[in-house]
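Reposting from the mailing list since nobody answered there.

I have sequence plus structure tokens for a pair of proteins and want to know whether others read the tokens the same way I do. The first protein:
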Amino acid sequence: MTQPTPPGKPLGMTDFFALEAGEYLERLDAVLQPAEGTAPLADEFVRLARALRGSALMASQQAIARTAAGLEGLARAIREGRRQWDAAVKQVAVRAVDDLKIFVRRASAWTAADTTKAENLALQLEQLAGRPSGQVRAAEALGLDAGARAFVAREGAAIASALDRAAQSLRANPLAHDPLQNILKSLQPLRGLAALNDLPPLPDLLEGIERSIGELERGRGTPPPGGPELFHAAATAIARAAREVAERGRPDPESAEFQTFAGQLVKVIEADQGEGGVVPIGTLYFEDAGPHIVRRGTPAARPVVLGRVELVSHGEHLKQVADSLERAPSQTQRELRAHTLAGTFRALAGAGGGPLAERVAEFAAAGRDTVTSGAAVANATAFAAELRRAGDILSRSSGADETGLASELEAVTRAVTALHGRAGAPQPAVVPIQSLAPSPSPADGDEPVAETPDIVGSWVTYTRLVAGGIGPASLVEFIAAATQVPAARPSADTARPASPPRASAPELPVVDINTLLYRGQRAQQRAQELRQEARTASGERLRALVEEVCDLVALAIEPGSPGE
């Protein structure tokens, strides 16, 4: 069916497709020639047509895949009894296989005329099968077939199991690494499903799981905050989504499990962003006339991290995220997709030196603040528009004037900042510190202030006592009263009536501290208790247990007390 490949020349994708598709078509030709008066093997007919469609999709031969899908629809109609096998149906099916053979031979030199022929044949097959066209099916979103639903259910259950095992492992050992890699391996089969993007929120779930693993791996060396809870929530969410796909062909993008996972993931991302944050010192002063910063220091030189090519790449990514934000069908998906910008903003914050790089860093800081404050999700359309503007500016950074681009990006930064209300937000009123002082004691002729139980009454009582000669506050007096030991009072107190005698507290025997230590057999028992506890400990706790056991070894050598 294909021209032989010259010796020594490696086979390309089109060559492999021609070989594989040619084999499927030859077997289809044999299936469509059953014995007189009998129908073809319906299951084999469906299987070969589906395999041909999959091979065409893998080789990016969309027109051939569309025709193969029409042939598969006809095969299903025959298997389900919606279309009887007769001479007219046989003629159409055989001619479709012959035309597909011609299409496969012309795959390496495809033309627009071939696309038109393939589309017409696909429409004819779909009409004969009694099913709507592919465009109508996509619009109606009827869901996946039984085989695809079973595949999603099986792989979703495997992912949920890997996530649950990882959550248990992280609870026992927060620094475990292998469970995270096992999760990534379990995601691969479902990631390769072509129809995955038509099953929200599964794509966001898988991307969120991969992102959470990346955040936890980036902070390797310290226990991940909320790692077990995050993976447990992910396992619950993906198990429900897979079950819904198996039962009714489509998961619920606003399920409670998915919202719980999204909330846990946002906490992990925000905790990672909050570590080591640096704020300008000028933001720590009051909003008054100053003086604030008396003399500015020399800022440290920012290393050149991103070049023009990287900025262009980030610009394209910003435009893609803007599109995904606008297309998100649910509030939870918008929140997750907005927080995927954390890595991009982190990279743009170190764009290097120069006027454009400084504006890029300012835009990244404003964008990060807008996302973490929730304003990006609340104003998703406006935020997506500003992301698209910033992406367009960065995409032009390879050849345009840097100063002009910096001015354009500065305007975008102001618009992003305004989204979460930082610009123009009312500042708290500043009051004189003198107004916070307690009221002075009443002077002669003024209305007396009652000695109430609150702080004002306490101050009035203290002022009256000082004026009466009680003397200044004394720590010696406080300790003497607490221990019930008489103490010498200042001479000003001699005019006060004597207090009634107080009963002295009974004296407790003095105990030698050495008798409270573990010794002998009791030290050995304590060491055994610590040994059991050390089996599940890690980090600083494990080191503390080891040090305590070493101390107990020395004490165990000494003879115990008579009671032991």
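The second protein, same order (residues first, tokens after):
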Amino acid sequence: MTRATLLLAVSFFPATALAHSAEAGESSPWRNEIAMLAPLAISGVWYAIGFLRLQPRVSAPHTPLWRNSALFALGWLTLVATLLSPLHELGEISFTAHMSEHELLMLVAAPLMALSRPLSVFLWACPDSLRRGLIRGCNSRYMSRVWRLISDPPIATLLQICALWLWHMPAAFEKVLHNEFWHALQHLSFLGSALLFWWSITRSTHRRHRRAIAAVCLFTTSLATGALGALMAISSSPWYSGYAEMGLHGLLPGGLPAVEDQQLAGLIMWIPGGLVHFVAALIFAYTALKQRQSPRHQRVLEGHSMGRPPVTGNTAPTMYVASSDARKT
């Protein structure tokens, strides 16, 4: 488990950081600098090499490898489109476009990449000596403890909420608007916290009743992001002087006033952003309830078949329920 952090950081984070390394306001809407394209290309080629080396060892074509590779490809393409398309350039002068970029990173690219489970594929792309070194280092006692702590769903949820709220504070966001280093750091923290969050609620297995915990974490995130978006949407004055100045000079797209640009950005975070987490919370809550009820239902059927009265209420032994949860987790 600890190896996922290292590999994902090496693969995706440089691409996000270097996507902001060039100066804003360049002539071409599609940013073709080699410094930005290279990290994205390297991560894609690295995964492709691992896939080609691992695929012959998989007998059936319809395996998790193919499904996970499709998920990774969709997430990688979303990341590329977000950072290389005109949307990124538009985000320099529009808070709405900037918010849309963040939502694509955190609600589309990050969950797709987390669900793709790329660890084994990346490892197969490494030379044998490097692969063994990564496994030994990341499975060390210290790294295991750190990873176990930060990948705990409540901790990962708190880290993502903190990243969202802190970076949208006016003092921090003003630095983002005027300095490419802070801009890159903001996107790194958004993508990193989102990857950790989605991985923790979909793949972390060291917690009992993880589906119920995931539902609570998703619902909490929905409330936190919705609250931040709502504050932006109902505000009667712009929070960020950088966008406010562009609005005064008529530089925002369509001549939109800065406060309306901010309100639209807040609505994007509030409704679509909060809705994604809320729907995911409902799905996890449904699966958690279904998982908890299935052992009781099985015992009812066994009681009928053996001529005993059905088991009702909470009479099912706790040990039986716990062992069933463990088998299905």
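Reply #1 (J.P.):
I read it the same way you do. Confidence is low (pLDDT under 50) at residues 1-33, 308-329.
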